[in-house]
Amino acid sequence: MTETIRPKPIRLGLIGDNIAKSQSPRLHRLAGAQNGRRVTYDQLVPAELGKDFDALFADVAAADYRGVNVTYPYKERAAAKVIVEDPLVRAIGAVNTVVFDDGGPHGFNTDYSGFMAAYRRVRGDAAPGPVLMIGAGGVGKAVAFGLVALGLEEIRIVDRDLPKARALAAALVAARPGLVARTGTEAVALAAGAAGIINCTPVGMVGYDGTPLARTALTQAAWVFDAVYTPVDTQFLRDAAAEGLQVISGYELFFGQGVDAWAIFTNLPLDEARMRQELAEGKDVT
Asked: Containing H/E element for 86?
């Protein structure tokens, strides 16, 4: 009798802070189940493991992980540790997906593609208009370059670290000459006349209560996007909906980046409609 040899599990993980409620483990386990493959997906918080990011990344790279996702606040640090072949991702300067192979760790950015898919799902081919983006970190960089690809002509970038905001503005102008880019440290000061308002900070997520911009500053806008997806219904999005703005949830970015990351990790197919349904129903694989 011939013994059936089962393929070994696909080992994945997520490196980040405050990730206890992340839905990424479930998404990838369900993706594996669609393909008859077992997926393990570890949540790796440096402080909880008693290591800094550099030490943890080195341990993971030396283990038998196929790849890892990287989230706040380590996306830019991860970019310095991987081979990035895509010039666009090099320009973004942040990676959220890392694959370990014989050629070394390779970095990708599916926040970029995930944001564009989320935007088009809600707004179709509509131009972004002038955009106020709060937060110039890893996800902010990816979203900003996504906006450029969507036809952005004017952006105002707000970050408490003004040099970081200015550096991102310069990179965007280099990528799209003629782009109008303004920077500052106070969102309210740059909100007037913005058609789109984007939160790319952790404000509003579980553990970081609040909103990045008061409801009174949203009244002139047409649409908003929140990169936060835990919870999906943030105060920022509730305020925007109450003002009648088009709302793009961070859940759409989460879903899009996860689908793209799965393809990069495994090159296996995915039924996206089935995945959406199973996630909404709370289904999981043990």
From this structure: none
In whole angstroms, what separates CA 215 from the centre of its chain?
Answer: 24
**Residue of 75, 81, 141, 164 marked catalytic:** 75
75 is catalytic: yes
Ordered strands of the 131-134 beta sheet: 180-184, 154-158, 131-134, 196-199, 223-226, 246-248
d(CA 114, CA 123): 14
Type of residue found at 149:
A
Matching residue, tokens 């989460």: 254
What separation in angstroms does the CA of 114 have from each of 44, 134, 253? 22, 18, 5
pTM recorded for the entire structure: 0.91
Average pLDDT over residues 200-204: 96
- The DSSP 8-state label assigned to residue 124 in this structure reads T
d(CA 98, CA 69): 6
Q: What is the DSSP letter of 161?
A: S
| Alpha-carbon torsion (202, 16, 87, 124), positive or negative | negative
CA–CA gap between residue 85 and residue 108 (Å, rounded): 8
Average pLDDT along the chain: 96
